[in-house]
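Extended Data, panel c. Modelled sequence:
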Amino acid sequence: MSAIEHEYFKAGLVSAIGYMATMPAGSALALPALYRAMTNQLARVRAAAAKAYSQLAKKNPDDLPSLVHETFLLLLTDPYVIVHTAAVEALREVRLPTEFTDRVIRSLWNIVGAYSKDRSNDRLLSKFLERLLRVLSRTDKSLIGRPTQQVILSIVRNMNVRWASRFATDNGHYLRGCPGFGTLLLRLIGDPDLDEYVVEDLVAELAEVGPGEILQISADFRAAAKTCASSGSEVTDEFIEILTAAGAWSVAIDIARDSTDRLTDSAWDRPRKLRSEARQIAAALEGAAAESNAESVIELTRGWRSVEEQISKDDAEHKKRRDPLFDLRLPDRGE
């Protein structure tokens, strides 16, 4: 057996310790082995020990000797990525006794600080940030106050778009109310490198941003909407709803107009374009009503009725032509 094979074999045996120690008969035998594994010179074995610890400690951590937890805390400060990553992952399963909480939080902040400076692995940084927030929230939700939010937001701003957007969709509820979060969300939504499937979740999170910040960043919505449209994501309705709720009527109208202008007058596009025009007029009508501009309300109401008539006429004239089964010849049953 080669040295690397021996290392993997030993790590596999250590992983089994956690399951064995959950049984009363195996606990006395497993604990000494777990201690040795957590201080082993091989990083892969120490990582396996972190996993074994999570299996052992997830049910009744208070029943374990303090030395078990003390030794595990060393793994959170381990310089090897495989080890401290495994230790952070173990915190998904384990809530250490309260006397160790401050040290766990401190260790997580140190890991996050190191990774945010190095910027070599935003995937892991995102995972560590998420675990830190989970520990803070289950310890005392007041710990995630404005200063903590601002620090985390500054870190997420510098992540690449893939991991920043994923973090924002999964953990955005922790950052709600933090000034600048809406700016980050809109920047991510308008990034041409953003995965299309994430847009919907980011827009839903953006809808939770307060009207004050929406007004401050409203001028940037139009460019983001155009970028989304060019990549196949249609956010016009959602953006209009967010903007009108905040009172940003002029931008909402511009976005509705842009959506209309992207459509042609072809037979297939015509019904969508007419309905887009109706949406555009509706946004303008709401804005005029909010400003108590009676003259504009009357004029826009006439425009709304005119578009409604055009929609009805167009639907009637092209009903058969737009039917996907129109002129499709089906074979006789007898053939």
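Residues 294-317 form the longest helix (24 residues). This feature is highlighted in the accompanying rendering.
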